[in-house]
Specification:
- The chain is mainly alpha-helical.
- The chain has two domains: 308 residues, no CATH class; 109 residues.
- Helix content is 58%, strand content 4%.
- It contains 20 helices and four strands.
- The chain has a four-stranded mixed beta sheet with strand order 1-2-4-3, with helices on both faces.
- Helix 2 packs parallel to helix 6, helix 7 runs antiparallel to helix 8 and helix 13 packs antiparallel against helix 14.
- The chain is globular, with a radius of gyration of 25 Å.
- It starts with 21 loop residues before the first helix and ends in a 5-residue tail after the last strand.
- About 1% of the residues have low confidence.
């Protein structure tokens, strides 16, 4: 018997495995109609928002994937000026290579469609796991609504992290399934972690999940049978951290994780790394956190110690940084519906209406997906106009240097490989020193000797919203003239390099 088997086992939803036909599909839609409608609406929203889903991190992933494909795994920075020669640990190399391969196969539209499938599939997987653990479809649906709002900001953006969401749900599924029926299947978490270790830095979360599961099992097993060493628990406790190092960059990864997760200080410069403050967009997160703890106090007996630990830990991480909201949303969707079932008796689902609405929404997903696939890449990337990139490249000439903020740098390098080594910096802030990060912030906020920052650069590429005052001050000083401008990007040609 598992050491975690201290609460009543759930009554999982039966999913036929021997035969899957129209009748089976119909029953699933009738029982889960409202949930299907909500998840499908989320996928349609993702597809409708694809024009905003390709931003700096996406361009960086595609660019880095091209670097790996054409030049092999990088060891030192060669793309930008400020970080030139610095040791570059491209921890996400496999995800980037995969995204670049998709772009070569089907262009930007295929990349964005696969991204939608990955993040939408992760949400659907979390909802299905909640149902398998015994939660009612109605409760999963109600919890899913605020989860969507917490999950959307992090999940909507195409980047290497898109490939990590399904891995997170898969690891969580394997661990939760072990709580009542221990099997050797739990060891499948290790190859998943090895894959994840080359996909995205969030593998730290996966390793923590498995290690936490092993720790609880170790303690409970030692208390139950003091004379017997729980080898399985020890393996689950220790091996995940070794899996994190299963990478071509194994020796460098401890320093990389320390820099990014502990000492990077990105929260002062990047909104995603800053603490999550209460506002209209983050209110659903606070509802899930505080409502979830209230439910734990009321009906926590339905959860195991591991589930309580995962919920509390992910909630703390979500409040600590905006970028962690998506992971907490997936955890909340798995854990909270069973607790919500304690608040009211089960209801009879309107079978025919559920089936009709769910079918209509699934058809809507197919139509929206076909519509997105029919668009050219220029429709998806229209926030990054090709005319603006062409103007910047022409103004720089064959040897000129370009000062662009992190929003545009990787996009320019992707558009014109000849700019390789001639752009100041890009979105890989982990390659910059604290002093360089301050220079970026000072330039944007026009603090101190901010005009000295772009000195020696022939071209400036600015954001017309966030850096409009910078652009106005430079043009007014007479050292720069506008060679291209629209509501997405402004390109300035410097009249003198002294700035």
């Amino acid at each position: 018997m598992s050491a975690q088997q201290h609460s009543a086992a759930p009554e999982p939803v039966a999913v036929p495995t021997s035969r899957f036909d129209r009748a089976t599909l119909g029953r699933i839609l009738e029982e889960n109609g409202t949930l299907v409608v909500v998840v499908a609406a989320f996928v349609i929203a993702l597809l409708a928002d694809l024009r905003n889903a390709l931003v700096a991190d996406g361009w960086m992933a595609l660019l880095s994937g091209r670097e790996v494909a054409q030049h092999g795994l990088p060891s030192h920075e060669v793309l930008t000026i400020w970080a030139h020669g610095h040791h570059w640990v491209d921890q996400q190399w496999l995800a980037q290579l995969a995204l670049y391969g998709l772009e070569r196969l089907g262009g930007i539209p295929l990349v964005m469609l696969v991204h939608t499938v990955l993040v939408g599939g992760a949400l659907a997987g979390a909802a299905l796991l909640a149902r398998r653990l015994g939660a009612s479809a109605r409760s999963v649906t109600w919890v899913c609504v605020p989860v969507l709002i917490a999950y959307f900001p992090g999940a909507a953006v195409m980047r290497s992290q898109s490939l990590a969401f399904p891995l997170f749900v898969a690891v969580l599924w394997l661990l939760l399934a072990e709580q009542w029926a221990p099997t050797r299947r739990v060891y499948a978490v290790f190859p998943l972690l090895v894959l994840w270790a080359n996909i995205h830095g969030s593998v730290v979360l996966g390793a923590a999940l498995v290690s936490g599961f092993g720790l609880i099992e170790l303690v409970q097993g030692a208390l139950a049978t003091p004379r017997r060493f729980p080898r399985r628990a020890a393996v689950l406790l220790l091996v995940p951290w070794a899996c994190m190092l299963a990478s071509p960059y194994a020796v460098s990864l401890p320093g990389y994780y320390r820099e990014v997760l502990v000492s990077g200080g990105f929260g002062r410069y990047v909104t995603e790394w800053a603490p999550t403050t209460l506002g209209w967009l983050t209110a659903p997160l606070y509802l899930l956190v505080f409502g979830g703890f209230w439910l734990l106090g009321r009906a926590g007996r339905r959860l195991t110690g591991f589930e309580k630990l995962v919920f509390a830990g992910s909630a703390i991480l979500a409040l600590e940084a905006v970028r962690n909201m998506a992971w907490f949303g997936l955890v909340a969707l798995v854990v909270l519906p069973r607790l919500a079932d304690e608040l009211r008796p089960a209801v009879v689902e309107p079978a025919r209406l559920n089936r009709l609405l769910a079918t209509a929404m699934l058809v809507g997903v197919l139509v929206a997906g076909a519509g997105a696939a029919a668009h050219e890449g220029s429709w998806i990337s229209r926030e990054y106009p090709s005319a603006g990139a062409d103007a910047a490249v022409a103004a720089a000439g064959p040897h000129g240097k370009v000062f662009a903020n992190e929003r545009y740098a990787d996009w320019l390098l992707w558009r014109d490989p000849a700019l390789r080594g001639r752009v100041a910096f890009d979105s890989r802030f982990e390659l910059l020193t604290p002093a360089q990060l301050r220079r970026v912030a000072d330039f944007r906020n026009r603090v101190g000797d901010w005009k000295a920052t772009p000195r020696g650069y022939q071209v400036l590429v600015l954001d017309p919203q966030d850096e409009r005052k910078v652009k106005a001050a430079l043009v007014r000083a007479g050292d720069d003239r506008v060679v291209y401008a629209d509501h997405q990007v402004v390109v300035l040609r410097r009249a003198s390099q002294s700035g």
